[in-house]
Amino acid sequence: MKVGIMGCGSIANTLVNFKLEDKLNIDFASFYDLDKDSAEELAIKVDSKVANSLDELIESSELILECASQGAVRTSIPQILESGTNVIIMSVGALLDTDFKTQIENIAKDNGAKIYLPTGAITGIDTVKAAKMGEIKSVSLTTRKPPVSLGLDSNIKSEKIIFEGKASDAVNKFPKNINVSSTLSLASGIDADVTIIADPNIQNNTHEIHIKGTFGELVTITSNVSSPDNPKTSLLAAYSAASLLNKLSETIQIGS
Ligand SMILES: NC(=O)c1ccc[n+]([C@@H]2O[C@H](COP(=O)([O-])OP(=O)(O)OC[C@H]3O[C@@H](n4cnc5c(N)ncnc54)[C@H](O)[C@@H]3O)[C@@H](O)[C@H]2O)c1
What we know:
This protein is an alpha/beta fold.
């Protein structure tokens, strides 16, 4: 499968490294970034090419992986889907805007395209989807990050709650940090209760999920190593995109 990359930052870098380590069963069609140098840097590593425009990216790709920004999702995903090209969206926060989500869902249906949302840097989205077959009564997410991962002063001495509210609000206030709350909300059908804590005593980005429903109760904790290129992004997010890319061509598909 020929995959085009939109956004050539930390996630794209990890994917390129996986390809170089022969762990990714795809070919890179082309690389696109507002910063052309970033695109060129990655394209050279895997003997691929730079797309000079969104049109060029679309023309060269069977599937496009967005790993850029919520803004890129809003401005580019409708056009990509209109061309009938499948997409994987990493900046999932943009989809908690219900009108936008409905708009792109309709465009995808009309043009025979699919929209894939990877699990990202949390545990158990397949379980959440299964739980939703019954009734889910509550969903909460507590995210702890070192202050620097939240773009805050590194001099913060003790832990500090910096957000309490709904996921739909969190993704607007922290567009680069809390995509997982969006994936969790979309999978569960409930606008999750989110708490974000800046914690100077931890190194890893930690996501703790509590869900109650007719199935029983689920508690997960994921302690994530940050990407070396971007402390806001957990390595597991890129691993999850890579795993989804491989899954699309696997004969035996594990997990719902
Ligand atoms: N779903 C998840 O669990 C999850 C986890 C981590 C990060 N993310 C999201 O994935 C996205 C990428 O993360 P990253 O760490 O690789 O980011 P990054 O900042 O390292 O790289 C993003 C790249 O995209 C480029 N870009 C931004 N807007 C663009 C546009 N409109 N068109 C083309 N290129 C554009 C930037 O120039 C940059 O090179 C972010 O939105 C991030 O919030 C999602």
